[in-house]
Amino acid sequence: MSNLDNQAFWMPFSSNQAFKENPRMLVSAKDMHYITDNGQNLLDATSGLWCVNAGHCRPKIVEAIQRQANLMDYSPAFQMGHKDAFTLANRITNLAPGHLNHAFFCNSGSEGVDTSLKIALAYHRATGESSRTVFIGRERGYHGAGFGGISVGGITTNRKAFGSMLPRVDHLPDTHNIQHNSFSRGQPKWGAELADELEKRIISLHDASNIAAVIVEPLAGSTGVLVPPIGYLEKLRQICDKYKLLLIFDEVITGFGRTGPCFAADAVGVVPDMMIIAKGLTNGAVPMGAVLTRQDIYETIVNNSTPDTIEFFHGYTYSGHPLATAAALATLDTYEEEGLFTRSQEMSPYFEEAIHSLREFPNVIDIRNMGMVAGIELEPKVSSNTTLAYKAFLKCYDKGLLIRTTGNTIALSPPLIITKSQIDEIVEILGSALIEIDQ
Ligand SMILES: Cc1ncc(COP(=O)(O)O)c(C=O)c1O
Question: What is the pLDDT of residue 2?
Fold first, then answer.
């Protein structure tokens, strides 16, 4: 690969200059591993980018995509349909909690977020409450890279270059607090009261009659694994109910077993009005996302129009794409046949114990976890623009382990097929990397 001209590809969310000087190229993947262009095995502790929950190149999914590509490559999504898209909508909504029984398909988490915001506006308009246009996100939230997503998102670097974004957005405070919750295991005890900000400040300031929806990740992943405090999401639910605000859970990374059960909503026992899913929906094999909505949201919008008209002017060329639906159906089969959500719940105590054994390692200031996701926060030391966490990423890569970093936090979210000895391997390699980068 040394003679490859790597200049034309403008890489997303990457340091293009550094990467192109010193590329890291992957050529194949199987189960828990990638293979690099040097022939090195990389143990995948991040499920790719939080998406390959069943492990890589799983036979059933590969075969389903191959079969579908031969049968029908594409089918128009507007005013036309194909059976698998309807079957998939039924299967996902059967998995979803509460009355989330309609699915709107898109191609990514970002599109899912924008779709959910548009559904919220259309719903309030259809109920005659068109003044409800304010969205409430959360500081440090990540909701993808679209303008809607960065507006309700709360990651400074993702927002600062892009002007005024959506008007009329406010943010809850984030739930991260090392002073109160350091080294907590599972949901931290302190912090439910942070939800009160919604009622005390935000609703007082904007008035509920102007607020369309509150959107949060039940567990914030991309911003450094912020686990929801006990009672926090329950409180948000109560306040949203009281003031008729729609509550949207962005489950793009928490969906499909990451926190134990199928959705984080199940883990905390809180049912949102809409849920955004993507990534693990197809095991990352073909891009796909979806917004799941409550029955009455769908009915309110659809029944607000006369039968022959388009009720909701929104959608994508590839909504419910045949290859994506084939991959998703095979992925759901794989999760089910291999009992991967149960496996996630059974493996998570071992994972928790193993990850927390890194507590005394150099520069570790916090470790937090829930289900099969963990964050290890390091001292915020930066040398030549590189955080310690990023140095750990480079060191681990050289040692055959793929981790993910965001700011000063290392995020681990391995495929749910991981074995105990592979968990040990992650901890051993990461531990040695933490020691070496301290020298
Ligand atoms: C919570 C959350 N929402 C939305 C997205 C955006 O998804 P995509 O990159 O598929 O657009 C992500 C991606 O990591 C995410 O973590």
Answer: 61
